[in-house]
Amino acid sequence: MSRPTEVAYQFIRQKIMEGIFLPSQKLVESELSELIGVSRNTIKKALLKLEQENLVTLEENKGATIKSFTLDEIINYLEIREVLEGLIAKTAAINISDTKITQLEETVESMKEHLDSNRFDEYSKCNLLFHNIIYEASTNKQAVEMVNKIKTQLQRLRIKTILVPGRTQESYKEHQKILNAMKAKDGKWAEDAVKFHVSNVRKTIVDNYSFLV
């Protein structure tokens, strides 16, 4: 990917992830070209890359539209993620190094500090870091790849779930349990703890869907 295409791709992707570009919104190539300062052909290439990530839909003579998921589709994605995350955590717990356990402990400590200070954006960043440490420890790299694709598509919702009253406190407790399972190097416990965490994410989205979309 050329430098201008990468710049355009990252710009549009970030706007989608942050919810500035909204689901079902039309993306006009000429407007994006002027906004980003690149050619329309560069915008086309960037949109093709975003289509591969299932973030936009491209239709001939109609242009690009930001992908919108139904509640049923979101539930299906999260059910798939729950199973895959369980597999990842199981292998990670068995193979995780002491160094990575220390990293998890430090991350959970930071999560608590951010939670106590109501710094939810920073809490969310630590949340991502926590799971990435587990992904790095897992031997099931194919499952990690698939989970990351699902998380990319649903990231707009993940950002909003931290605003649901009480959800961040529940999330913190769930991460503590996952940490304890990792420290014990208990694959089954880790699998169950992560699956419980993802199932609660799904429940939060279902219960608060009208607020989140």
CATH architecture of the largest domain: Up-down Bundle
The mean pLDDT is 92
**Could you give a short account of the major beta sheet?**
3 strands, antiparallel
The CATH class name of the largest domain reads Mainly Alpha
Bin the helical content: over 70%
Instruction: List unreliable stretches of 5+ residues.
Output: none
Set out the fold topology.
Elements: H1 3-17, E1 26-27, H2 29-36, H3 40-52, E2 56-59, E3 63-66, H4 71-95, H5 98-116, H6 120-137, H7 141-153, H8 155-161, H9 167-184, H10 187-207, H11 209-212
Antiparallel strand pairs: 1-3, 2-3
Helix pairs in contact: 1-3, 2-3, 4-6, 4-7, 4-9, 4-10, 5-6, 5-9, 9-10
State the main characteristics.
Four Helix Bundle (Hemerythrin (Met), subunit A); 11 helices; 2 domains; 213 residues; 76% helix; mainly alpha; three-stranded antiparallel β-sheet; Arc Repressor Mutant, subunit A; single chain; elongated
Question: Would you write up a description of this structure?
Answer:
With 213 residues, the protein is mainly alpha-helical. It has two domains: 3-66, Orthogonal Bundle (Arc Repressor Mutant, subunit A); 71-212, GntR ligand-binding domain-like (Four Helix Bundle (Hemerythrin (Met), subunit A)). Helix content is 76%, strand content 5%. It has eleven helices and three strands, in the order H-E-H-H-E-E-H-H-H-H-H-H-H-H. It has helices spanning 3-17, 29-36, 40-52, 71-95, 98-116, 120-137, 141-153, 155-161, 167-184, 187-207, 209-212, and strands at 26-27, 56-59, 63-66. The chain has a three-stranded antiparallel sheet. Strand 2 and strand 3 form a beta hairpin. The radius of gyration is 19 Å and the shape is elongated.
